[in-house]
Amino acid sequence: MSAELAIDLARKTLETTLWTSAPILGAAIVVALIISILQVMTAIQESTVATVPRLATVAAVTFFLLPWIMRRMVSFTVQLLRDFHPYLH
């Protein structure tokens, strides 16, 4: 396998990972920001107040986006395995 091929494969893999994880991480960041603002305004500094909503948001977003994530990952895998010959050298 040539260096260009390895770099291209790594780039495609990282791109797929970024696109599938970005909506989940974005939702977690938005919820964390909102909760942080509410904690500053109300002076409630308990860690469970910040953790539980973030976990619930990540679970909900993952649940709703799972079909899209699976389609994207299956598409990447099929594309990789369809033309596997260049990776054998």
Describe the structure.
- The chain is mainly alpha-helical.
- It has one domain (3-88).
- Helix content is 85%, strand content 0%.
- The chain is elongated and about 60 Å long.
- The model has no long low-confidence stretch (mean pLDDT 90).
The low-confidence runs, each spanning 5 or more residues with pLDDT under 50, are none
Distance between the termini: 5 Å
Discrete helix count: 2
Binned, the helix content reads: over 70%
List how many beta strands DSSP finds: 0
Multimer state: single chain
Q: Specify the overall morphology.
A: elongated
Structural class by SSE content: mainly alpha
Largest sheet: none
* % residues in beta strands: under 5%
Number of domains: 1
The mean pLDDT is 90
How are the elements arranged and paired?
Elements: H1 3-42, H2 47-82
Helix pairs in contact: 1-2
Précis, in short:
The chain is 85% helix and 0% strand. The protein is mainly alpha-helical. Helix 1 (3-42) packs antiparallel against helix 2 (47-82).
Question: What tags apply to this protein structure?
Answer:
mainly alpha, 89 residues, single chain, elongated, 2 helices, 0% strand
